């Protein structure tokens, strides 16, 4: 999941964790599922004690018939998701022979015009508490990334739904409810503003009697607390081995261990060695706390991306906006592309992309030029992910044009390239191509048809200042051969191609033609 998707999911989970009314919560889940994946319809079914699923809420449906539909065990796409505990999608639901169809359910799907459906489990402690589904009224293939995003939302929604039920149940015991709410608020602050492992275990140890520990994915204890104070502590067992097969809460007589994980990553474990057996409500609080630790760990992992990865992702358009943690990049930066390794030591944000060094620098052009880095392209200053990527394209093109022009060792921005800057964009290359064809058309056609190289002869001749002897020497041909070729060029281009403004146009067209070929 990219940083943008993680942040959006992160903000959504914070909102869900603050909703304690079950009906409002599940409606919030389907509303955001529809928006996140850009689908026509989203709906959520919760599991009943008999194994059936009841569609509780919808968003985007054409009428009320979809809400309240009862899906018997193992029927339809939702039944397959509930049975396997894995995401399932059907490109054309009504025609999918792999699914067990029910007439009433199919009639509702037909009335709604549902075609492609993706369903993911609301999985909690190894059980499926419900199914979150999104649907399109046209055939569509959901990508693995989209399925992963919906699965993550479903995982967090399952915990949020369970939390809502828990808060409702705890409302009957005021004292415990107040302490749970305080913990909830504290964890919300940690999730919102970031924090360390001790920011979770200390308040949790005030509520749960016993030793509370947080370990990383390598089973190294990050923090331990008892009765609201940090202490030394050791894990009971090896959670990483315990959760290798199944990431679900593990309860024994002497220890409760909860995985700290997202849908796609394992960050470690939250463990309590209790003074007395924990109540079910206490286990639910542990799972809520583990979710907070997972959120913080997810953000930390994303924000620990190196500057090199960040630069590469920006300039290659792998991210659509500058991440929140890279606030400095919201100010204008020059994009510098060079093959000189000294650039890495001169810039704080650099990376290697396609064999070239790329740097984002706050310095002005004069400073960058003073670095004398050899063949270097620069563009900008630019602000924002899209503008930085466009500037990178221009800087790379500047390097290629400099090399094609034989100006290796120079530094150039698009403004330094004169008429050759048109070759930096597709529209400019098209315009240059029109000029080349209009100016050199008969000559280009002759070389193409006859296999000759009169184009090269004309360029060398004009570059030599129309001096025949130096031109013949560079072409390694006899002067008489050069005269014959020049006569043939005159026959093709007409009299006067060697003189005045006409010679300038021909020479420019010849160079543009060669550069376009080199840049192709």
Describe this structure in words.
This protein is α+β, with helices and mostly antiparallel strands. The protein has four domains: 3-167, GAF domain (Beta-Lactamase, 2-Layer Sandwich); 191-303, Beta-Lactamase (2-Layer Sandwich), CATH 3.30.450.40; 307-422, no CATH class; 426-519, PucR C-terminal helix-turn-helix domain (Arc Repressor Mutant, subunit A, Orthogonal Bundle), CATH 1.10.10. Helix content is 49%, strand content 18%. It has 18 helices and 17 strands. It has helices spanning 3-17, 22-37, 76-84, 103-112, 144-170, 174-193, 198-207, 239-242, 280-303, 307-315, 342-346, 365-370, 385-404, 426-450, 454-463, 468-475, 479-493, 500-519, and strands at 41-47, 53-59, 70-71, 88-90, 116-124, 127-136, 210-216, 221-226, 229-230, 250-251, 256-261, 266-274, 333-338, 349-353, 356-361, 376-382, 411-412. The strands form three sheets. Strands 3-2-1-6-5-4 form a six-stranded antiparallel beta sheet, with helices on both faces. A six-stranded antiparallel beta sheet has the order 9-8-7-12-11-10. β1 and β2 form a beta hairpin. α1 (3-17) runs parallel beside α5 and α6 runs parallel beside α9 (280-303). The longest helix is centred in the N-terminal third of the chain and has 27 residues, at 144-170. The model has no long low-confidence stretch (mean pLDDT 81).
């Amino acid at each position: 999941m990219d940083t943008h998707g993680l942040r959006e999911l992160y903000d959504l989970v914070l909102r869900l964790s603050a909703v304690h009314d079950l009906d409002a919560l599940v409606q919030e889940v389907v509303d955001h599922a529809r928006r996140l994946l850009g689908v026509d319809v989203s709906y959520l079914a919760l599991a009943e004690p008999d194994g059936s699923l009841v569609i509780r809420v919808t968003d985007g449906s054409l009428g009320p018939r979809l809400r309240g539909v009862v899906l018997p065990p193992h029927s339809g796409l939702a039944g397959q998701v509930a049975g396997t505990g894995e995401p399932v999608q059907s490109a054309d639901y009504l025609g999918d022979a792999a699914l067990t169809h029910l007439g009433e359910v199919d009639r509702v799907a037909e009335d709604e015009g549902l075609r492609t459906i993706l369903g993911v489990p609301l999985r909690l402690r190894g059980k499926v508490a419900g199914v979150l589904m999104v649907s399109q009224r046209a055939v569509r293939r959901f990508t693995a990334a989209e399925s992963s995003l919906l699965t993550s939302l479903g995982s967090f929604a399952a915990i949020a739904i369970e939390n809502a039920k828990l808060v409702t149940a705890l409302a009957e015991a005021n004292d415990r409810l107040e302490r749970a709410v305080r913990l909830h608020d504290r964890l919300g602050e940690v999730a919102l503003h970031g924090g360390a492992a001790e920011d979770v275990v200390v308040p949790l140890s005030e509520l749960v009697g016993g030793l509370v520990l947080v370990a990383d994915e390598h089973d190294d204890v990050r923090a331990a607390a008892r009765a609201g104070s940090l202490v030394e502590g050791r894990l009971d067992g090896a959670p990483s081995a315990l959760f290798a097969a199944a990431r679900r809460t593990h309860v024994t007589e002497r220890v409760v261990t909860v995985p700290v994980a997202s849908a796609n990553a394992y960050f470690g474990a939250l463990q309590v060695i209790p003074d007395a057996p924990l109540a079910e409500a206490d286990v639910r609080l542990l799972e809520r706390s583990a979710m907070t630790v997972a959120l913080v760990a997810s953000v930390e992992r994303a924000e620990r991306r190196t500057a090199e990865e960040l630069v590469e992702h920006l300039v290659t358009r792998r991210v659509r906006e500058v991440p929140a943690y890279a606030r400095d990049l919201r100010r204008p930066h020059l994009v510098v592309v060079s093959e000189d390794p000294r650039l890495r030591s001169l810039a704080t944000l650099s990376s290697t992309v396609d064999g070239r060094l790329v740097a984002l620098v706050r310095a002005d052009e004069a400073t960058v030029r003073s670095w004398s880095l050899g063949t270097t392209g620069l563009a900008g200053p630019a602000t924002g992910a899209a503008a930085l990527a466009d500037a990178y394209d221009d800087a790379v093109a500047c390097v290629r044009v400099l090399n094609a022009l034989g100006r290796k060792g120079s530094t150039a921005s698009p403004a330094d390239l004169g008429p050759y800057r048109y070759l930096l964009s597709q529209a400019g290359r098209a315009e240059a191509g029109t000029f080349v064809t209009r100016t050199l058309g008969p000559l280009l056609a002759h070389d193409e048809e006859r296999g000759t190289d009169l184009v090269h002869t004309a360029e060398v001749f004009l570059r030599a200042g129309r001096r025949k002897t130096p031109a013949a020497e560079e072409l390694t041909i006899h002067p008489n051969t050069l005269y014959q070729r020049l006569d043939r060029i005159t026959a093709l281009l007409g009299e006067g191609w060697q003189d005045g403004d006409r010679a300038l146009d021909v020479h420019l067209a010849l160079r543009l033609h060669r550069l376009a070929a080199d840049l192709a």
